[in-house]
Amino acid sequence: MNKKLKIAIGSDAFPPTTDGISNVAQSYAEILNKNFGEAVVITPKNPNEQDYKYPYEIFRYKSWWIPSKEGYSVGWPFKESLSYDIINKNFDLLHSHAPLATSYYFRLVNRKKRIPTVLTYHTKYEYDIDKRIPLKSARDFAYKFLLNNINAADEVWVTSEGSVESLRKLGYTGDYVVMPNGCDMQKTNVSDELIDMIRRKHNLPNDMPIFIYTGRMIWYKNIKLLLDACKALKDNGNDFRLIMLGFGADELAIKRYYKKIGIEDKIVWTGKILDRDEIQGYYGISDILLFPSVFDTNGLVVREAASCATPSLLIENSCAAEGITDCETGFLCRESVMSIAQKLESIMYNKELLKEVGKNAQDKIYLSRKDAVKKAYERYSIVIENFYKEGKDRETFKY
Fold first, then answer.
1. Cα–chain-centroid distance for residue 103?
2. Among 17, 242, 322, 329, which is 20 to 30 Å from 305 by CA?
């Protein structure tokens, strides 16, 4: 297939909503349009949208707005004419990045005209379902809704082998393709000027270990475990700083907790930062990224840190730790306060080891977003070819 493909990039989150999937959708759209074919973002309407800033088409469909710190809107794709809006754009393939409203939208489109469809499963949705939906009947409905959206795709992609377990918990029994996300940050040596600026901004001493956590401020990212480990480090007489960069639903509770356990003097809270160069500066000043999450299916922040030759401490056998060799391309520990604290004490003062492992991470585990999207684009052609070879365009769509 030699022609340039026209791809619908479906995402339930897109700026001004910011999260990992939103970042992935932006990068797919930008890189596809710049280097490979044509891409249009399909996403719910948002009252704060500023789509004029983007050099590609963004198609917004009806939504319900939920005022919250994260700024999510809930897609409502049930108007019949919306299906024809997609059909009339003559897409070669629909690619949804979540089994939520936009995936259901693509199902409605396929009921009227079959178009090859890919779904990327990015996150462990059962965590949110089990936490936020108390009634079993409602949880069962949510599981069934997600499962039908997943089954409706002609090909399912996961970002790591470990995330398949989450798919199976939802009831998915089909095949899948591993398609990891890439990093939109370029490999770099962060400038001394930027590091000095951040150091002065937060009054960070030159001679102590600097840790960083980046990501959503949500308890199920194992943030309590991380803070308790820092408490153990302090109790053992260690001096350090932990930069906490991000925002989320639990940030006020997180702040209360680290004050309660007496480590407020060790925490540098940056809040929400969107400038990618500035975020790289924070990675560059840090000795280690602490990412104890066993929730994330890919742990993109690990590759972001690696872009600056900053190594990561991860929980062994977690999805984020896939491909990481202990003390070679990162550091691994068990999912316990004691294990995290002991591992940090064994490495936090060894600047030569940290530098060596960070450089190995930059050389061996870093994956650029462009290379990841290139691999995905090549796979699109295979999905399309198989779709028509198997006669799916002539079959009755059952979802």
1. 18
2. 17
Please check whether residue 245 is in contact with residue 275, taking contact to mean a CB–CB distance below 8 angstroms.
no
Q: Answer yes or no: is pLDDT of 34 > 80.
A: yes
Cβ(357)–Cβ(329) under 8 Å?
yes
Tokens 């209360």 sit on residue: 256
Q: Which of 11-20, 21-30, 295-304 has the highest mean pLDDT?
A: 21-30
Can you name the residues that pair with 332 across neighbouring β-strands? 314
Type and span of the H or E element at 385: helix 369-389
Per-residue model confidence as pLDDT tens digits over 307-360: 999 999 999 999 999 999 999 999 999 999 999 999 999 999 999 999 999 999
Burial of 396 (0-12, 13-18, 19+ CB in 10 A): exposed
Nearest in space to 94 (alpha carbons), one of 108, 81, 80: 108
Whole-Å CA distances, 254 to 62, 165, 232, 247, 291:
34, 29, 17, 10, 16
Contact 117, 387 (CB under 8 A): no
CA–CA dist 31, 50 (Å, integer): 20
Q: Look at residue 69 in the predicted model and tell me its pLDDT.
A: 57
